[in-house]
Amino acid sequence: MAEPVLVNVSLIGNKHINRGTPCEDASCTLSRNGVSVVCVSDGAGGSKYTHARFGSKCAVDCIANLLCDHFDAFYFENRESLSRSLLVTAVHSSMADLLVEHQLDGLERLSCTLLFVAVKGDLVLAGHIGDGLICRVSSHGVSPLTLPSNGENASSTYFITFPNAQEYLRFIRSTTDETHAFVLMSDGVEEMVYDSSTQLVRPVVARLAELASKGKEQAEEELASTIKEFVIGAGQNTDDASVGILYLPETAAPDFSSMKDAKAKFQRNHEDTIRAVQMEWIPKVKHAQEILSALSSGKPLPPAGAAPSEDEPEEKKETAAPSTENVETSEKKNEEKKQIPADNGEKAGAPEVQKPSSDIAPKMVPLWAFLLMTGAFLVTVILLILKLI
Known about the structure:
The chain is an alpha+beta fold. 39% of the residues lie in helices and 19% in strands. The strands form 3 sheets. The protein has a 5-stranded antiparallel beta sheet. The protein is globular, with a radius of gyration of 29 Å.
């Protein structure tokens, strides 16, 4: 099988040109030990990210070298959380020298996103934190491999420099089956070729990938020219733009004449959230905890499917959830109060009537509390299994 062709370009946008500030994007390619890697990083904009351009350069160089030297270790490690943590730790450790060199007060100054694809034979490792886009080009067309990840709004995102960056790093192990090329891009390019309302990647991405068939040097020259004209030249406030291509020769290219340039919008259910799932499962987790607690203590098991018992004392329960009779008495007294005119001729306000406990909305359990309960549940399961063994 022919060696992959690796192409990368990072260009300064008009926004930085007009402000007289440097390009904050970085990209690199590296081939070693039978491994081919393409990395792209977008340095964070903003006054507090003073050295983001150094962070983005450090991140792509670190990951490219790490995966060329230890591809097998990461690909065949089944504990994905360990792999993600090690990748983040490696980047943070590499950035530590920059803190000393530039006399910085923390990694936040170096904030940047990170996208990478590494190929060894038929095996593929990919990773992505933050915005930007990784696409897979095949004989069937072009589709997103990883999507942009934004924060509370479209202008915010996640950075590899976060203390808990491993929680946001998407890590993919796959194969090159039917793959023609991988295309990585920072958000300066992504915004021009990707429609988030339909998740459509425009066919032009596949055409950019095909430039790599001309070889690295010519491909990078033509790619830079195309990005300057159609991306950076699209306006006076365009962002920096980076593209990385990992092209697999002797593989089937898509039929460009049949590729779609439009797609129907999908309808998202905004009420179906992870928070909603957590709330749905809290009673079931509590019930499971009661079963495991009973097993470990020798107490009688609660009936299957029974609602979890409350740990509150009876007196507290009565106070928290008044009976219907108490509510009716309260309502009667309130009606009497309404008939009594207020002092000094003022109009009496209508007092609030406490609703029965069944009508009161359940209190939202904080995320940390849910995770704590889940952790306790898992620990109990493990201890029980060890005890039975």
